[in-house]
Structure formats: C-alpha cells, structure tokens
Amino acid sequence: MKITPATQILGIIGDPVAHSLSPIMHNGWIEDHGIDAVYVALRFHSQDAEHDIRALKGLGFAGLNVTLPHKQAAAAAADRSESEVANTLRWEQDGTLSAFNTDGAGFLDALAEAAPDWASRVRRVLIVGAGGAALAIGKALSPRVETVQFVNRTMARAETAAAALANGHALRWGELERGFAGADLIVQATSLGLDGADALEWPLAQCQRSAIVADIVYRPLETQLLHTARARGLTAMDGLGMLIHQGARAFELWFGVAPSAANARARLEAALGP
Ligand code: NDP
C-alpha cells in the first residue's frame, strides 16, 4: 500500500488497544475495496477524554472506532450522537463530528447469521453481565422479544441495566441456573472466558434443547461455554460475529459500502490462530 498526503486516516482509540483486531479487519476491507486509506490502533490515554476527543476534531480523521474506557466520552464529545455510548465516530464534510453505536445492531446481524430462524425461536433472553456490551445487546434485543433478564456478579448493575429496558429484569448471581433453564437465548457478555480464564461451571445441563448460546468473548474463539454448548447439541455463536458485524456497520458509515463478513472472518481466524 502506498501512503500519500491524500491517504485517509482511520483508527481505533482506547486504553489498552494493542490487542485490537480492528486494524486487521478494516485494513483488509480497505484493500478489498481499493480505498486510499489506512486504519491504525492508537492508545488514547486521557484524564479528560471528552475534551481530548473534541480536540481530535481538528485532525480530520475520516473515522474512528472507540473502545474502553472512552465510549461515553466519545458520545458526549460529538456534535450529535445516536446513543449515550458510542463506538464509532464519523467526520462530516462541514467538520462536525457524528457518533454512532454499532454494537447492538452488529450483535443482531451476527445472531441472524448464526441462527437465521432466531426470531421465531427466541422469546426469553438471558444476558450474563451488565456492562456496556451487555446493555447494548439488551437494547437491541428488547423490542424483538418478550423479556430480557440480566444476571450479573454485581446485582446493582444488573438492576440498572434492567431498568433501562421496558421488558428488562434482574436476577441474582445465585439464580444463574434458573436463568439458564428459562432462556431461549443466553448471551455471555462478561469478560469471563477471556484468554481461557473461565472461572465458572456454566449450568448448561439445565438448558432447553432448542436454546441458542452466544459468547461475545473471542479470545479464545471456542470458549469453554461454547465448547460445552456444542457438545450438548445447542446452537452456539462465537464472539467474532459481533466484532465483524459492528465493524462492518462502522465501515459502511464511513465509506458507504457494505464489506464482506466472510473475508473478515477468514483474516481474523488466521490472526487468532488455532
Ligand atoms: P465492562 O467492563 O463494561 O463489563 C464487564 C462485565 O464483566 C461486567 O458485567 C462485570 O461484572 C463482568 N465481570 C468481570 N469479571 C468478572 C468475574 N470475575 N466474574 C463475573 N463477572 C465478571 O465490559 P464490556 O461490557 O465492554 O465487555 C465485556 C466483554 O465483552 C469483554 O470481554 C469484551 O472484550 C467483550 N466484548 C466483545 C465484543 C465483540 O464484538 N465480540 C464487543 C464488546 C465487548 P461486574 O459488574 O460485577 O463487575
């Protein structure tokens, strides 16, 4: 790739960010579409991220993704934002900044890919976790299902997440088994399982045979939860789907073209290794 003064610059800001797979995904798509752009990972260490993101406006990036811990600051720093928590920033022709959150819609895209008939199968959802990703997924699913239950180590956070949805409920951590037994879709949205650090015996034996089990952790791709779910014959969905589809939606917001999810999966699976 030849970088010139005309090359558009995009990237991901977060702290830490060195582990991010987004550069592989977006640079692959940039190449697929022959776009004169480059996507980089930028560690963004800031005591006042809202102020500092606003200061970035003058640099004229074509677009940025935003990851922890700056998603709220990004939404607040933008001139307009579709949600209070943003993962995508776009510079407009007039120099203003727009913020978007593609996490929830990206999860739904991934779910439709993993279980095309999910809408007719899922009435009751259990989300394990109540952090930013859990809430984005809950908000996306809420209008499409009967109930969304959050079960979280810290009960107060589960209650806050549940209160944000018209059909949200909170379960105590001790009620995990009951939650698994009653759900048509279980979404693991905590950092448990990350790098194999699975501290839990997930109560999959209680699940209905028709249940769909999704894990949004993608390092490793096959978490203990997914491995056990597959062994029990349940529909399992890994965390790469959400990563790819939230990224694809961001890419389309920047460049107006929908990139190939299959190309991204091939590149990311190669990068993650066996
Ligand atoms: P947050 O920090 O906002 O939330 C973390 C969640 O994990 C909280 O619910 C927290 O519970 C829970 N948790 C952490 N450690 C433990 C533990 N030892 N036992 C039980 N619960 C625990 O993070 P995010 O919501 O942004 O991200 C959560 C995970 O999802 C991360 O692993 C992230 O990498 C992944 N992710 C994947 C995406 C994808 O595209 N596939 C997109 C976004 C995130 P508590 O409230 O009690 O602290």
List cofactors, ions and other ligands: NADPH dihydro-nicotinamide-adenine-dinucleotide phosphate
The helix tally amounts to 11
Biggest sheet record: 6 strands, mixed
CA gyration radius, whole angstroms? 19 Å
Explain what the structure shows.
There is one protein chain. By secondary structure, the protein is α/β, with parallel strands linked by helices. It has 2 domains: 8-101 and 242-272, 3-Layer(aba) Sandwich (Rossmann fold), CATH 3.40.50.10860; 104-237, NAD(P)-binding Rossmann-like Domain (Rossmann fold), CATH 3.40.50.720. It has 11 helices and 12 strands. It has helices at 22-32, 49-56, 71-77, 103-114, 118-121, 132-141, 155-163, 176-182, 224-231, 240-255, 261-272; strands spanning 8-14, 37-43, 63-66, 80-81, 88-91, 97-100, 124-128, 147-151, 168-171, 185-188, 212-215, 235-237. The strands form 2 sheets. Strands 2-1-3-5-6-4 form a 6-stranded mixed beta sheet, with helices on both faces. Helix 7 links the parallel strand 8 (147-151) and strand 9 (168-171). Helix 4 (103-114) crosses helix 10. The two termini are 28 Å apart. It binds NADPH dihydro-nicotinamide-adenine-dinucleotide phosphate (NDP).
What does this entry show, briefly?
This protein is α/β, with parallel strands linked by helices. It has helices at residues 22-32, 49-56, 71-77, 103-114, 118-121, 132-141, 155-163, 176-182, 224-231, 240-255, 261-272, and strands spanning 8-14, 37-43, 63-66, 80-81, 88-91, 97-100, 124-128, 147-151, 168-171, 185-188, 212-215, 235-237. Helix content is 38%, strand content 19%.
